[in-house]
Design brief:
This protein has 97 residues and is mainly β. It has one domain: Immunoglobulin-like, CATH 2.60.40. Helices cover 7% and strands 39% of the residues. The protein has one helix and seven strands, in the order βαββββββ. Strands 1-2-7-4-5 form a five-stranded antiparallel β-sheet, with no helix packed on it. A two-stranded antiparallel sheet has the order 3-6. The radius of gyration is 14 Å and the shape is globular. The chain starts with a strand and ends with a strand.
Length: 97
């Protein structure tokens, strides 16, 4: 799992416009990206989400999978992710306030 966002990372302009047409505000468009690189079997883990860095703290928050449109409610810094290459090889989650 890799975390990226507007703070401290350079996001290419075309991608930034596609993901967040409005100028970013603090906490906007934080992305969590997970990819299964094993083409033969599912992988699962508890992922670390830097919620305090993102200004979320311990409150529940929603992650929106931009690949499928599915939304999940997560809480805290550890959350479960399972990726099966036969079903879905990755997630691009936008963290919603």
């Amino acid at each position: 799992m890799q975390w990226t966002g507007w703070r401290g990372h350079r996001v290419p302009e075309a991608i930034r416009r596609a993901l967040a047409p409005a100028p970013p505000a603090p906490g906007d468009a934080d992305l969590l990206i997970a990819v299964n690189t094993d083409p033969h079997g599912p992988q699962e883990t508890m992922v670390h989400v830097p919620t305090h860095e993102m200004g979320i703290g311990d409150e529940p928050y929603v992650v929106h999978d931009l690949l499928t449109g599915t939304r999940y409610t997560w809480q805290g810094v550890r959350n479960y992710v399972r990726l099966d290459p036969k079903l879905q090889v990755g997630h691009i989650f936008r963290v919603e306030p």
